[in-house]
Design brief:
The complex is a heterodimer. Chain A is mainly alpha-helical. Chain A contains 23 helices and no strands. Chain A is 72% helix and 0% strand. Chain A starts with a helix and ends with a helix. The chains are: A mainly alpha, B mainly alpha.
């Protein structure tokens, strides 16, 4: 066994890496792979009886499992490493993406939107749009989502392979094929059950694997005040205050204004992502009853609120403690490290044999879980929202279950293709990330109007979504061709690219909402009978009054709001 | 009638078992290397050892708590 593990370590490794793995580390990684495959084989019998079991995990998950899975689907390693890098680059401002960009939207999803998703008994967000607006809006949303999801899965895979190459010196093809085959096997066998089980497992691995960095870092820095003093000694500008530097674009390292953070990020981007991205919403929809479905995103919001301890804090610790400076990816030369290597560098700084393996396993688990989430969401939307309505209407449940399994395999194969495509055309990665954001903000406008405004019509929904998406693509393209036009999008000549994303989302949402309203006022609405369970005015939301106060979603929502307020005050 | 999902092993059992195995590996390695710890920052604090203890406790708790038990006759 020991010899075999050493052989694996020798095969996949090469010199020039940040981290050197020992035999216990490789053993820990190998056990992880065996476990996730074992879970897939075990869950096969539970996911194989109906398409409802395969795609929606039998709608049998407890609030805790659905909540942790909801968060884990978002907590990929790309996200962890990216935001640790952003914390090094922009300081504590990066925390806004975990606080104001999470809790209000997640609570809103739980309390306001989840009842409609759940009561309508739909299988997906495009499925809801079909019920509310009709086929055209479902087709636009379903096709764009399926396309984006599977491509994002490939980009995640490529990013993982690249990280493993830089950090561990692993062969890029080895990383891509081993992780893809593993994900394909366990999702094809166990469907959403497998994806959710592994996401909850990953949640624990990430926390326990990364927790050593903030604990050891704070000991080394002498607590928060010691860290702040070290950062202020080493860098110019304010890297440790959340709001006090947001009065003007020039006053903070991110180059943003508080209006962009509050309305663009906390308002549109966050609400768009958390309430309409089927990748995360699917997890809450798999809950066993409406109360659990409402609680799932609220439970997740508590954990999201403390994720900065293992993501943002390591970035700040690196800023205050590392004896060398990190540089942007474009400036990396031999002997220099990029911002993106913050997390592995800090792991290597504190972790000995075994613990280092756990940290690397957490990163691998994060990547694979992100890929599994994308692939399972793709299989669901493809089967329910494209294949069944447009290609093969009269299939049996067994047929759609089989299609779902094949979709998973096809999704993984397309992801591998995308990963290799990105290897040759790296700029695609940037464009694809932006492309995904094009659909999120306008989609939120379409869904929220559909749920809350009974007058929104099928034509209004379709043209609003299309106008919002096209305007977002238009603004992005305009700034790529004429970078100086950023000042029109962000309303300031001092704005930086980060501000563009926030304001572009805001404008595209406003355009979507305005077009939906105007078109709706001039086109025929759906009869009230067809809107039962889909629109606030025609839906009776079950009350939570029959359960004790501490079991009600609203109780926990108030709790997380208080926690949010305290954190803003402490780090103002 | 109970759905067949209720006979499914709990996800918490899988988590507990994995963390217990990881805890025991890290604990063993840390004890073996106690007198000559790896050259990392704060090596003298023996963070590996503490992490191994923590993982073992959490893993053992979840494994025992969610270990499938025989059901009595209905």
């Amino acid at each position: 066994m020991n010899v075999a593990l050493r052989a694996i370590a020798l095969y996949v490794a090469n010199p020039g890496r940040i981290i050197s793995l020992s035999t216990p580390d490789v053993l820990i990684i190998a056990i992880y792979f065996v476990t996730v495959l074992g879970i897939g084989f075990y869950l096969k019998k539970f996911a194989g009886s109906s398409s409802e079991d395969f795609f929606m995990a039998g709608r049998d998950m407890s609030a805790w499992v659905a909540g942790l899975s909801f968060l884990s689907a978002n907590l990929g390693a790309l996200e962890l490493m990216g935001w640790a890098a952003a914390a090094y680059q922009y300081g504590i401002l990066a925390t806004h993406f975990y606080w104001i960009a999470a809790f209000p939207a997640m609570v809103f999803l739980g309390l306001v939107m989840m009842p409609f998703y759940y009561i309508s008994n739909t299988h997906s967000v495009p499925g809801y749009l079909q019920l509310r607006y009709g086929e055209a809006t479902r087709a636009l949303s379903g096709i764009s989502f399926a396309f984006m999801t599977v491509l994002m899965s490939g980009i995640n895979m490529y990013a993982m392979a690249l990280v493993m190459k830089v950090v561990l010196g692993w062969n890029i093809h080895f990383s891509i094929w081993v992780s893809s085959i593993t994900v394909a096997v366990y999702v094809t066998l166990g469907g959403l059950y497998s994806a959710i089980f592994n996401e909850v497992l990953q949640f624990f691995l990430i926390w326990l694997g990364a927790l050593v960095i903030p604990v050891a870092g704070m000991i080394e820095a002498g607590g928060w005040s010691g860290l702040v003093a070290r950062i202020n000694e080493r860098v110019q500008g304010d890297y440790v205050n959340l709001w006090s530097t947001l009065g003007h674009f020039k006053d903070n390292p991110m180059g943003v204004h508080w209006t962009g953070i509050v309305f663009g990020l906390g308002g549109v981007i966050a609400f768009g992502y958390w309430t309409t991205d089927f990748l995360v919403v699917q997890r809450a929809m798999a809950a066993k009853d409406l109360r659990s479905a409402k609680l799932a995103p609220i439970i997740a919001s508590y954990f999201k609120m403390i994720v900065p301890a293992i993501v943002i804090l390591p970035g700040l610790l690196a800023l205050g403690l590392l004896s060398f400076k990190l540089v942007p990816e474009s400036a990396v030369r031999p002997g220099l490290h990029s911002y993106n290597e913050v997390l592995p560098l800090m792991l290597a700084r504190y972790c000995g044999p075994g613990l280092l393996g756990l940290g690397v396993t957490a990163l691998i688990a994060g990547f694979m879980s992100g890929m599994a989430g994308n692939v399972s969401a793709f299989a669901t939307v493809w089967t329910y929202d494209i294949y069944r309505p447009y290609i093969h209407k009269r299939g049996t449940d067994k047929h759609f279950l089989l299609v779902g399994r094949w979709c998973t395999i096809v999704g993984v194969i397309v992801s591998i293709g995308t990963a290799y495509l990105v290897t040759h055309f790296k700029s695609i990665m940037d464009y694809m990330q932006a492309l995904v954001s094009f659909f999120i903000a306008p989609l939120f406008g379409t869904v929220i109007l559909g749920m809350l405004w009974k007058r929104a019509t099928p034509k209004g929904g379709f043209w609003g979504l299309l106008a919002g998406t096209v305007s977002s693509v238009g603004m992005y393209t305009a700034v790529v061709i004429h970078p100086e036009w950023l000042r029109y999008v962000a309303l300031s000549s001092d704005a930086k690219p980060m501000a563009e994303n926030l304001y572009r989302a805001l404008w595209s949402w406003i355009i979507c909402v305005l077009v939906t309203i105007v078109v709706s006022l001039f086109t025929p609405r759906k009869p009230a009978a067809e809107l039962q369970g889909l629109v606030y005015a025609y839906t009776e939301i079950p009350s939570d009054d029959d359960v004790p106060l501490y079991k009600r979603p609203i109780f926990w929502a108030v709790g997380v709001a208080i926690l949010f307020a305290i954190l803003q005050f402490l780090f103002w | 009638m109970k759905h067949h999902h209720h006979q499914m092993l709990s996800v918490w059992l899988f988590i507990g078992a994995l963390l217990l195995i990881y805890g025991l590996i890290i604990l063993t390695v840390s004890i073996l290397n106690y007198s000559h710890p790896a050259p990392v920052v704060l090596a003298n604090e023996h963070l590996n050892l503490w992490a191994g203890v923590l993982l073992t406790i959490i893993g053992a708790f979840y494994t025992i708590r969610f270990w499938p038990r025989k059901r009595g006759r209905d």
